[in-house]
């Protein structure tokens, strides 16, 4: 990887495999980073560092505003002394999160319905828009989902090809159907193409190791994790 003999995508897949993550276990599903922060521009300029997410920070504090809340949560003392300190009560990768992203394709649709006691979750909680999902991450320090590999190769998961009735949003009454894409993506295929290009960009190649330190490396636990605001319950 250092010698550029394999792609960033291949390297991440291999790291996930070595870490025991697998497509066969929703609780240990491969995890990939959010790499962009620009989901509103008409054009995506991969030569501009400002369009990329800061890969040195956990997703929960990519928005500086959330750091204070996250630190306060860590400094809360459990009166019974039973619970270890943590910055985040949820996780960047879990079974519900995988089903959330893949709700439009089987077998994940059926698994989601089973998880929700036999019906689809309410529409406002569905994965319905990539820009809105990113905005929610920026606004809410309790939502810390990273991505799954499908965001870089599988356009079908962004389309409601099976015609599932996913309900409508409460405020706008908008029907949840295909996933709403960033303005710079003209189709699911175009989104995947540009997103993959972003993953292999010079900026990400130069900074990917910082995210790997958080997820697979020395910032997972211990003093380095505390300093990086990267301690999970």
From TrEMBL:
CDD domains (alphabetical): Beach
Keywords, A to Z, come to: WD repeat
A GO CC annotation recorded here is: cytosol
Please report the stretch or stretches of sequence annotated as the BEACH domain.
1-233
* Record flagged with keyword Isomerase: no
Q: Which Gene3D superfamilies match?
A: BEACH domain (1.10.1540.10)
Which GO terms fall under molecular function for this chain's record? protein kinase binding
Protein name per its UniProtKB record: NBEL1 protein
Q: Which organism encodes this protein?
A: Leptocoma aspasia
Q: What is the lineage of its organism?
A: Eukaryota, Metazoa, Chordata, Craniata, Vertebrata
């Amino acid at each position: 990887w250092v010698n550029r003999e394999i792609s960033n995508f291949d390297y991440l897949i291999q790291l996930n495999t070595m870490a025991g993550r697998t497509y066969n276990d929703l609780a240990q599903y491969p995890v990939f980073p959010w790499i962009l922060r620009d989901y509103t521009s008409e054009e995506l300029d991969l030569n501009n560092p400002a369009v990329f997410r800061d890969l040195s920070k956990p997703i929960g504090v990519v928005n500086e505003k959330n750091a204070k809340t996250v630190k306060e949560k860590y400094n809360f003392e459990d009166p019974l002394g039973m619970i270890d300190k943590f910055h985040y009560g949820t996780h960047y990768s879990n079974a519900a999160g995988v089903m959330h992203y893949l709700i439009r394709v089987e077998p994940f649709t059926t698994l989601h319905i089973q998880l929700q006691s036999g019906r689809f979750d309410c529409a406002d909680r569905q994965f319905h828009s990539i820009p809105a999902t990113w905005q929610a991450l920026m606004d809410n320090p309790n939502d810390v989902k990273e991505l799954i590999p499908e965001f870089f190769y599988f356009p079908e998961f962004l389309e409601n090809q099976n015609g599932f009735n996913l309900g409508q949003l409460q405020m706008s009454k908008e029907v949840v159907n295909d996933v709403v894409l960033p303005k710079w993506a003209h189709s699911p295929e175009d989104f995947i193409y540009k997103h993959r290009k972003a993953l292999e960009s010079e900026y990400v190649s130069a900074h990917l190791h910082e995210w790997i330190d958080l997820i697979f490396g020395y910032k997972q636990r211990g003093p380095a994790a505390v300093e990086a605001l990267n301690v999970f319950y």
